[in-house]
Each structure stands twice: as structure tokens, then as C-alpha cells.
């Protein structure tokens, strides 16, 4: 499949799913016009239907004031969508039908949406929801297909990931009231961080540093809250400390012109001198910093013919001379910022947990009996919660063009129609406690609100946490290497319906297997594109090596990480020297692309952006995994071909959600690399590691096997 045609739909006209998960099949049979017109049931009245009279046709019709839909025949709850199926060929037969050829199956020509009846969280079905979004397989972009919604996932792919059966998780079930309180407190915590940086150091918080602090803390955190840390050792975050220190005395940005370099050099010298004068520095430190700062200012006054390179060279010299002394006087203050933010977070977690326990107690939700778990291997299944969900409040839903808007107590979250339908499909596959979709809207609201809070409120802030690989790359990974599982994703940006994500309490209802560091597969082929937190990536490598060493079954991990070599990150160094490394390749900067982290809400033309950094692709496999999914030159070439930038017009390089760059699936930025310019990409599209395989990797490759596992509890 070409990259231009990867975002299409495989329409299944023989099966249409209803809101409750039932399926309707066959041609509809309309009521006979000779029978008396029945009265309108109360359910239809509540759904917005009313009986009207057509003066032009001189006969009655039914009109929905919510969706502006008009029907000649009395509507049936859950019937077909007039946009995707205007002739009603796939609708369910109505009760009391007569001969199919006698009834009037025509409709008034008005664009509308179908409505569905449910509980307090019932929702109007979007007009795209009756397409089969499970797969994306159209090969021709004719006029009809061009009008279909664009899809970026394939939910038909079955998993080959095998795990040991595990008990339900002890997380508290999500509730909109608690999610609203968590959002408010997290916003206050961000404000505290901003104020502390400005008051104590006179700087703005480093971009995305709070988001990376959340990622780094959750690697260590043993507290009860899924988002905010409360039980970490050490208390001082290395990530936050490093990023704040890098911006002291001023933030160093990329320089394009000579005048900018001159101003930046002057500001740095002035800020370093001011800081050393106002802090409790040693006489030697004060002397060194003041002498270098004054010497730099005198040089700037004398020399007006220096080039940009001269200014940058002088700035680097000044940083080397003054940096250690400035860092020494700022160390205690920055540690105080990290400690203060952590203790405020722990207090907020205590409040949220106490309020959540009170809410569950008021709803008569008690601890269930321990689940009976057998010691057996099963295909991986979504994480389950031990506690039953309390009654959910009403969440309102309406549509604004192609945007689904969900509102709870005045707080609105938005998601594209197609992604709303994706969440509906994932919910149908994964949720086992809500067959009537009565809690669907409240759980969608909690899910989207959680990720919005984690992202932050800044422009393009946090989008790097959700960046994703292009669809052709996923297709190549699945076809060539049997990949069926994403180690770092979310219900919003996942390509497969089986994945690991950050929040098991909200994401488990939509297919998540929980956080990857708590997920221990025995076999399978996996794609890993972690958030760009150095501490998280290092913990990921440790987890990979433990799994590969422990398992004798086929196990393969294909990892996509940024090519950060100045300085070299510990995670990249460990993977390149790992005993399980079977192959490595690099894709240069600006020669490949990623999907936006805000793909669930952004415009279609903003979906893709070029990567401003190189990407390293590393294959970690045990012996059995290498024998089954060997990265042969032919397979690698197929993967590289899928990775090339397609011909569609791309915008400017993607938002920099961390140290300078954004990147692959469910990934976020980096800390201290904002001042490092992207490296020049080599001429070829990718460089291959052609070193011979190790002795234990000499097995011949087997063709990729497609595994169709049974139900989630079936034994292997």
C-alpha cells in the first residue's frame, strides 16, 4: 500500500454494529402504508422525534429536532445512518413489517445524524460511525472514497503477545468529579512551578519540563495517583533539576543572525555578573565570574566587526568559565524548587485519594473478593479494575461539524468524530462491565481530560508526548516483523487495539494493557516508541533486557528513539551495546515524518510534520525471536521504504515538545537539548548496520506468521 492511500476505510456492508454492541444484518423491511399509523412511543419522543404533516406530499412524516433528520416511516431506535447508508440497505428490520417491496423506504433529503437511546450518558451516533473503521484498506482515492473520513489505525490486527494471567488491578475507578478535581489541582501545581522559577531564579520554566518531570517521577513513584507523584525516592527530580539549571542564568536559544548572537552574549555576561553579586558566592567564584563578564563586555564595546561564529565562540568560552561557579551558587535554590513542587504534589494526591474514597463509600462501592487467577499463559487482554465503577453522572454530548464536544459541569473536551468512533469501537472490544454503553460518555470525558491535563495549556504543549509513527511504518512492521502491539501509546493515538499506556484506570476500558514497565510478556513482537524522557528510556531498556533474558519463547522489540549523541544518552548507549541487539539503522532528520500528538483534535493538513532530529531504530530480540522475525535486508528495505516522507504537502517541522524536538509514537520532548541545533542529515535516506550477526543469531529467518488468538482468557 502506498503512503498516499494508507488513511482509508474498509467498509463492511454486511454487518453494522449498534450502540449496544449488537449487530444487524440483511436488508430492511419497511412498514406497509396500508396499516394504521402507530402512535409515537415515549422513547422516541425523548430522543427528539415528533410526528409532522407534509403539505406537499399530503402525508405524515417524522422529524427529529435534535439532528434535523426527517423520515417518511416511523423511526426505529438504533436504525441505519442516512449518510453512510442513504438507501437503508444495511438497516435492521423493524417490527411489524410487511412486504419489503410494498413499503416506502425513501427518506427526505436532509443531512442528519442518527440518535441512540441509552442511560444518562447516551449519545448521538456520529454519521461516520457506521463505517467499518477496524481496518484501512482502500486502494483507490476516487470521489466517493475521498469523502470518507481518514483513519489512522487498524483494529483488525489480532495480538500475538502472550502473558501470564494476572489479577485485576487495584486502581480506583475513574469518575468525572474526581478527574475535575485532579485537573484543577494539577493546574495549580503548574502555576506554583512557574512562580517558583520566576521568583527564585528570574527565569521562565523550561518548556515541557513539568511534563517530563511527571514522566520521570512516575518511573519511581509508588503512590496511589495515576498522574501526580507522591512516593518517590529521591525526592529531588534529576530531570527537573537538570533542566532548570540549564536555563541559569538565562535560557540559551538557537541563533540565526549575528545581532542575535551579540545580544545573547551580552545578556549572558550581564546575568552571570548579577547572579554572582546577589548570591552567597565564595571570593574566588565572585572574582572569576566578574572578571570574565567584564572582559566580555569590554570586548563587545571594542569589536563591532565580529562574525556570528566569533560571538558564539566567545559565548561558549564564557559558559565554560562562569558556568560551574553560577551552578554552585544556584544549586541550593534549584533543589528547593524541586523539593517544594514534590511536597505540594504529595499533598494534592492525599486530598484526591481521600475525596475519591469518600465518593466510593457514598456510592456503596466496597472491596470485592479476591479474584481466582490461574497460573497459565494467555493472550494479552485489557487491564481490569478490581473495584466496580460507581454510578456515573450525566455528560452532555453534541457535535460541531466534525468535532464531538463532551461537557461536564461546564468543562468541555473535544475530539474529532472519527476518533470518537474509534473510542467507541475500542470500548466495545475492551469494556466488559457496560454492555449498554451507559458509562461510555463519562469514561470518554475522563480519558480526554486526563491527557489534556498531562499535556498542559500552552500552545502545542505536550503534543510531543503523543506523537506517532506514520501508518505505512506500522503496516510494514506488522507485515514484515509480525508486530501487533505498541509498548507506549494511548487510546487516542494507538494503531493497534492492543497497547500499553500511562493510565490504566482510564485507558483500560479502551484496550490498554496498563503501563509497560508493569507489563511482562512471555512472547510476541512489539513496537516501542517511548516518551523522550531519559530516565524513562533507561528504565525501558532495563525492562527489555530482563524480559529477553527470562523468556525462551519468540520475543522481539523494535525500538524507535531520537538520535541524541551530543551527549550520548545512557539508554541509547545501552541498547547499542546490548547482547540482544540484532540490528540497528538510523533515519536522518528532515527525511521522515511523524503524526502529530494532537491528532485526535488537529486539522487534517496538520496531521503530519517532518522530524527535526534523526531517529535510531534498534532491534532487540532473543534467539527465538531472531529466528522468527529476523531483520533481513529485504525486510529492512521494506521498512525504510515505508518510512520515507510521502508526497503530501507537509507543514513546518513539528512542535518542539522537549529538548528541541518532537518524535515518534507517544513520545515527548527532551530537557537540555533546546540549545542544540539539529544535525545535518546525510545524503542517503538511512544508514544500515551491516555488521554480521552474533554466533547465536545464525538461524535462518522464518516467514512472518499471522496469529489469530482466541478469547482473552484462552490458554496457550
How would you explain this protein's 3D organization?
By secondary structure, the protein is an alpha+beta fold. The protein is built from 16 helices and 20 strands. Strands 13-14-15-19-16-20 form a 6-stranded mixed β-sheet. Helix 11 (471-481) runs antiparallel to helix 16. GO terms for molecular function: mRNA (2'-O-methyladenosine-N6-)-methyltransferase activity; RNA polymerase II C-terminal domain binding.
Ordered list of secondary-structure elements with their pairings:
Elements: E1 16-17, E2 23-24, H1 42-46, E3 49-54, E4 59-64, E5 69-71, E6 114-115, E7 124-125, H2 143-146, E8 162-164, H3 176-201, H4 209-220, H5 238-246, H6 258-278, H7 283-302, H8 308-362, E9 377-379, E10 396-400, E11 403-408, E12 411-416, H9 417-430, H10 440-455, H11 471-481, E13 485-486, H12 504-507, E14 524-528, H13 534-550, E15 555-562, H14 570-576, E16 581-587, E17 593-595, E18 608-610, E19 615-621, H15 623-628, H16 633-643, E20 687-688
Amino acid at each position: 500500500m502506498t503512503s498516499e492511500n494508507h488513511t482509508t476505510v474498509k467498509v463492511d456492508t454486511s454487518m453494522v454494529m449498534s450502540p449496544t454492541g449488537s449487530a444487524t444484518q440483511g436488508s430492511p423491511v419497511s412498514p406497509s402504508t396500508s396499516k394504521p399509523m402507530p402512535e409515537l412511543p415515549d422513547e422516541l419522543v425523548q430522543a427528539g422525534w415528533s410526528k409532522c404533516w407534509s403539505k406537499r406530499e399530503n402525508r405524515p412524516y417524522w422529524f427529529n429536532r435534535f439532528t434535523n433528520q426527517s423520515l417518511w416511516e416511523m423511526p426505529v431506535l438504533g436504525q441505519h445512518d442516512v449518510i453512510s447508508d442513504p438507501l437503508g440497505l444495511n438497516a435492521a428490520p423493524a417490527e411489524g413489517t410487511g412486504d419489503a417491496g410494498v413499503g416506502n423506504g425513501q427518506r427526505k433529503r436532509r443531512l442528519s445524524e442518527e440518535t441512540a437511546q441509552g442511560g444518562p450518558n447516551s449519545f448521538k451516533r456520529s454519521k461516520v460511525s457506521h463505517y467499518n473503521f477496524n481496518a484501512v484498506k482502500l486502494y483507490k482515492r476516487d470521489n466517493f472514497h475521498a469523502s470518507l473520513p481518514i483513519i489512522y489505525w487498524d483494529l483488525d490486527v489480532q495480538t500475538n503477545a502472550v502473558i501470564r494471567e494476572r489479577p485485576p488491578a487495584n486502581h480506583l475507578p475513574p469518575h468525572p468529579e474526581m478527574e475535575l478535581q485532579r485537573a484543577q489541582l494539577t493546574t495549580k501545581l503548574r502555576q506554583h512551578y512557574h512562580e517558583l522559577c520566576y521568583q527564585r531564579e528570574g527565569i521562565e520554566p523550561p518548556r515541557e519540563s513539568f511534563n517530563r518531570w511527571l514522566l520521570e517521577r512516575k518511573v519511581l513513584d509508588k503512590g496511589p495517583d495515576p498522574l501526580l507523584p507522591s512516593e518517590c525516592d529521591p525526592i529531588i527530580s534529576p530531570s527537573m533539576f537538570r533542566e532548570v539549571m540549564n536555563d541559569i542564568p538565562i535560557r540559551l536559544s538557537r541563533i540565526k543572525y549575528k545581532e542575535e548572537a551579540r545580544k545573547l552574549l551580552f545578556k549572558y555576561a550581564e546575568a552571570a555578573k548579577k547572579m554572582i553579586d546577589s548570591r552567597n558566592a565564595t571570593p574566588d567564584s565572585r572574582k572569576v565570574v566578574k572578571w570574565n563578564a567584564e572582559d566580555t563586555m569590554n570586548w563587545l564595546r571594542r569589536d563591532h566587526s565580529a562574525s556570528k561564529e566569533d560571538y558564539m565562540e566567545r559565548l561558549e568560552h564564557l559558559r565554560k568559565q562562569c558556568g560551574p561557579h553560577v551552578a554552585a551558587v544556584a544549586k541550593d535554590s534549584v533543589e528547593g524548587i524541586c523539593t517544594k513542587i514534590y511536597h505540594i504534589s504529595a499533598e494534592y494526591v492525599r486530598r484526591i485519594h481521600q475525596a475519591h474514597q469518600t465518593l466510593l463509600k457514598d456510592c456503596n462501592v466496597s472491596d470485592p473478593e479476591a479474584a481466582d487467577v490461574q497460573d497459565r499463559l494467555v493472550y494479552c487482554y485489557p487491564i481490569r479494575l478490581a473495584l466496580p465503577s460507581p454510578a456515573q453522572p450525566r455528560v452532555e454530548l453534541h457535535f460541531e461539524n466534525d468535532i464531538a464536544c463532551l461537557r461536564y459541569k461546564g468543562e468541555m473536551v473535544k475530539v474529532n468524530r472519527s476518533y470518537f468512533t474509534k473510542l467507541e469501537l475500542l470500548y466495545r472490544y475492551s469494556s466488559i462491565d457496560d454492555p449498554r454503553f451507559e458509562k461510555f460518555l463519562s469514561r470518554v470525558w475522563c480519558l480526554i481530560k486526563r491527557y489534556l491535563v498531562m499535556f498542559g495549556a500552552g500552545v502545542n504543549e505536550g503534543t510531543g508526548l503523543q506523537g506517532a509513527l506514520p501508518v505505512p511504518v506500522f503496516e510494514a512492521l506488522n507485515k514484515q516483523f509480525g508486530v501487533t502491539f505498541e509498548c507506549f501509546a494511548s487510546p487516542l493515538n494507538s494503531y493497534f487495539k492492543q497497547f500499553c499506556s500511562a493510565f490504566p484506570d482510564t485507558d483500560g476500558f479502551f484496550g490498554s494493557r496498563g503501563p509497560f514497565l508493569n507489563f511482562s510478556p512471555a512472547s510476541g513482537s512489539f513496537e516501542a516508541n517511548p516518551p523522550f524522557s531519559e530516565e524513562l528510556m533507561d528504565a525501558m531498556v532495563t525492562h527489555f533486557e530482563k524480559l529477553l533474558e527470562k523468556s525462551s519463547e519468540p520475543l522481539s522489540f523494535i525500538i524507535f528513539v531520537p538520535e541524541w549523541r551530543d551527549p550520548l544518552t545512557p539508554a541509547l548507549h545501552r541498547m547499542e551495546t546490548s547482547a540482544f541487539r540484532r540490528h540497528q539503522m538510523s533515519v536522518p532528520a528532515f527525511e521522515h515524518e511523524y503524526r502529530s500528538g494532537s491528532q485526535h483534535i488537529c486539522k487534517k493538513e496538520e496531521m503530519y510534520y517532518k522530524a527535526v532530529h534523526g531517529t535510531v531504530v534498534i532491534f532487540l530480540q532473543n534467539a527465538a525471536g531472531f529466528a522468527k522475525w529476523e531483520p533481513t535486508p529485504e525486510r529492512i528495505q521494506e521498512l525504510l521504504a515505508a518510512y520515507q516522507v510521502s508526497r503530501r504537502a507537509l507543514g513546518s517541522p513539528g512542535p518542539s515538545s522537549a529538548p528541541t524536538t518532537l518524535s515518534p509514537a507517544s513520545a515527548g520532548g527532551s530537557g537540555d537539548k533546546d540549545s542544540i541545533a539539529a544535525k545535518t542529515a546525510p545524503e542517503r535516506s538511512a544508514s544500515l548496520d551491516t555488521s554480521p550477526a552474533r554466533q547465536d543469531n545464525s538461524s535462518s529467518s522464518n516467514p512472518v506468521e499471522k496469529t489469530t488468538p482466541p478469547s482473552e482468557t484462552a490458554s496457550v
